[in-house]
Write a structure and sequence with these properties.
This protein has 265 residues and is α/β, with parallel strands linked by helices. It contains 5 helices and 26 strands. The strands form 5 sheets. It has a 10-stranded mixed β-sheet with strand order 5-8-11-14-17-20-25-26-22-23, covered by helices on one side. Strands 6-9-12-15-18-21 form a 6-stranded parallel β-sheet, with no helix packed on it. It has a 6-stranded parallel β-sheet with strand order 7-10-13-16-19-24, with no helix packed on it.
Length: 265
């Protein structure tokens, strides 16, 4: 019986084999398996990998841990293979065991949770957090204080996905399985969830999205007015106000965006 079948069988029966669960999490930690991965028709969620994480929590016990002079009390240790992976981690940045950071990643004093996958050359800037199972692509910049939400349960739920080359501005929050398309630019303080409308205002009529920012779009925080019994109030939304120039590289394109749309990062 393969690893996937064993994990699913344990989930159904409740009879746990710690060695099998540990094997799955070790593969997750090494990047050999992922919670979700790109496919020909979009992203595919590997439910059994999320189930393995849930089972791992069941078999682990809360215990004291000493890491680099810091003291913790938790079920899951921190990663320790940064040098082997070619990953730079600035104290007190922490990535939990069972997450994967690709070669060339830089983790400033932020946090990466179990099940997360972070692509090559991506920057997780100061106090940015990458939640459980989030998938962050290559050459992404998560600016200071960015919050990428975790989606562990239910197992079939899609995690937050940040595709290659996206730029997420300071204090932006992205949760509930929202997908950010490749090369998109999310301005500081934008909040995106499954229900917050994302409105393209670049044409003669607004075009509304939910839970997804198309590739290379530039997104600013916005407010949409709504009538209530007590009066008219502004509800949070996000506005697509333009698109990155495909002929420029990441650095030049971001500078152009900052000048054109007056986005401060």
């Amino acid at each position: 019986m393969g690893l996937r079948q064993q994990i699913l069988q344990m989930w159904e029966s409740g009879e746990l084999d710690g060695a099998v669960i540990e094997e799955a999490i070790a593969l997750l930690d090494a990047g050999a398996i992922r919670v979700a991965e790109p496919a020909a028709n979009g992203w595919v969620v590997n439910e059994w990998v999320k189930i393995a994480i849930l089972l791992y929590f069941r078999i682990r016990k809360v215990e004291p841990m000493d890491v680099g002079g810091l003291h913790f009390l938790d079920k899951i240790p921190v990663k320790s293979d940064y040098a082997d992976r070619g990953v730079r981690v600035v104290p007190p940045g922490v990535a939990r065991y069972g997450s994967f950071l690709s070669e060339g990643c830089v983790l400033m004093p932020g946090y990466v949770n179990i099940g997360a996958w972070v692509g090559p050359r991506t920057m997780v800037d100061t106090w940015a957090t990458v939640g459980s199972c989030a998938q962050v692509g290559a050459d992404v910049h998560l600016a200071g204080g960015v919050g990428i939400g975790g989606v562990l349960e239910p197992p079939q739920a899609a995690p937050v996905i940040i595709e290659d080359g996206a730029f997420i501005g300071s204090r932006a929050v992205i949760v509930e399985g929202v997908r950010i398309g490749a090369g998109a630019v999310i301005a500081p303080n934008v909040v995106l969830s499954a229900t917050i409308p994302i409105i393209d205002v670049t044409g003669p009529e607004p075009v509304e999205y939910r839970g997804e920012v198309p590739p290379r779009k530039v997104v600013l925080p916005g407010v949409r007015q709504k009538e209530f019994a007590a009066g008219t109030y502004g509800l949070q939304c996000a506005l697509i106000v333009g698109e990155r120039n495909a002929s420029t590289d990441l650095k030049t394109s971001l500078n152009d965006v900052l000048r054109e749309f007056e986005i401060a990062v």
